[in-house]
Design a protein that fits this description.
single chain, mainly alpha, 4 helices, flat
Amino acid sequence: MEVVSIKVAPETKRRMEHLRDINWSEVLRQAIRRRLELEERLRAPVDRRRALAAARRMDDFRKRVGPSDFDSTREIRKWRDLRRRS
């Protein structure tokens, strides 16, 4: 295996030391593998035929549902403002 080192904040290191039963190297290896798989999937070439079929299905769904008075921008703003007050 190759060696890769990382730096963590002193507080993080202190907290890790309290959990000595955890194999932090394995935790990091798994996290890196998961991230690599995600990035590779996200960067894979898009199957244009499947993407167009999905877009057509979404358009059909929108037609069936019809217009809405729901304002997503207003709803997002409302919840962000509520969160800031806390």
